[in-house]
């Protein structure tokens, strides 16, 4: 069963950052969250492309609130648009924080992936609904 977050799409990853993921400000390093988003987006893009994909762009990235040690980080993803060989995935990251289990919007962005053939060249995406 796919767990959904309403308009956010499906929950693709749920992780808790470790002490090693903290930057000099005491927040979780931005590169850590970018990599989690890339992994989640890649999972969804791979499924929709029915094969290998490569990340080719990150657009409209916005960090809303810092991620703190102890946050449970949920990464949501959904298809935003598609072209002939590429697919844009909207990725939203939300923290569950503290005993009150407060839901906090952390960051959001759009990652673009290109479907790859056996020679690592762009290939057409399958028709929508063919998954």
From TrEMBL:
Any Pfam family hit: 4HBT
Coiled coil: none
Gene3D superfamilies, per the entry: Hotdog Thioesterase
SUPFAM superfamilies: Thioesterase/thiol ester dehydrase-isomerase
Ranges of residues in domain HotDog ACOT-type: 7-119
Keywords recorded for this protein, A-Z: Hydrolase
Keyword Ribonucleoprotein applies: no
Record has Coiled coil as a keyword: no
Cleavable signal peptide: none
Superkingdom in the source lineage: Bacteria
InterPro entries, A to Z: Cytosol_ACT, HOTDOG_ACOT, HotDog_dom_sf, Thioestr_dom
Sequence similarity: Belongs to the acyl coenzyme A hydrolase family.
The protein, known as: Acyl-CoA thioesterase
């Amino acid at each position: 069963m796919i767990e959904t977050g309403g308009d956010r799409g499906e929950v693709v990853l749920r992780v808790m950052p470790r002490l090693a993921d903290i930057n000099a400000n005491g927040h979780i390093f931005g590169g850590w969250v970018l990599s989690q988003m890339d992994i989640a987006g890649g999972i969804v893009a791979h499924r929709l492309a029915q094969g290998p994909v490569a990340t080719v762009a990150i657009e409209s990235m916005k960090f809303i609130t810092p991620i703190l040690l102890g946050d449970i980080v949920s990464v949501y993803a959904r298809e935003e648009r598609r072209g002939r060989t590429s697919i844009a995935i909207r990725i939203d990251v939300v923290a569950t924080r503290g005993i009150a289990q407060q839901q906090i919007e952390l960051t959001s962005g759009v990652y673009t992936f290109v479907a790859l053939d056996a020679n690592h060249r762009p290939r057409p995406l399958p028709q929508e609904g063919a998954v």
